[in-house]
Design goal:
Strand content: 15-25%
Shape: globular
Bound molecules: guanosine-5'-diphosphate
Strand order of the largest sheet: 2-3-1-4
Largest sheet: 4 strands, antiparallel
Helix content: 25-40%
Distance between the termini: 18 Å
Radius of gyration: 14 Å
Number of strands: 4
Length: 138
């Protein structure tokens, strides 16, 4: 089934000038890029995006990190896009990520882990809508 998912190149990776490298991997894996932009989230916007994690002990630190600098938000489309993008990213904790995954290669810690990906169709729809209007998805 053709799906869409939201990918984020997080502030750690943008700051380290990894945007082009990660976009090249996305295209090489066969995803279509349906929308893309650079954003600098406010703390409140980061808190809204990660609202499901608000009770977690790392919520304040995570939202401070995600609002610390520019990020790139991207809508990816392919067959099985949600699972496929999470496989390319690898495990949340780079120490547990498989060789060849983006997080194994580029993450600096469990928090500063280079990329984000939606985890299910309902969260993908919410997250895409958080950043893009319908007319921006082309
Ligand atoms: P994901 O779906 O793989 O991004 O993982 P989660 O939804 O569980 O967590 C969201 C984000 O919170 C992760 O990508 C990390 O940036 C951060 N995070 C997750 N677990 C931890 C943790 O134990 N400590 C810290 N500091 N950050 C975490």
């Amino acid at each position: 089934m053709i799906e869409r998912t939201l990918a984020i190149i997080k502030p750690d990776a943008v700051e380290r000038r990894l945007t082009g490298t990660i976009i090249a991997r996305i295209e090489a894996e066969g995803f279509q890029i349906r929308a893309m932009k650079r954003v600098h989230l406010s703390k409140a916007q980061a808190e809204g995006f990660y609202a499901v994690h608000r009770e977690r002990p790392f919520f304040a630190s995570l939202t401070a990190f995600m609002s610390s600098g520019p990020a790139i938000v991207v809508v990816l489309e392919s067959a099985d896009a949600i699972r496929k993008w999470r496989a390319l990213m690898g495990a949340t904790d780079p120490a547990k990520a498989d060789p060849g995954t983006l997080r194994k290669e580029f993450a600096q810690s469990i928090e500063r882990n280079a990329t984000h990906g939606s985890d299910a169709p309902d969260t993908a729809a919410y997250e895409i809508g958080y950043f893009f209007s319908g007319t921006e998805l082309i």
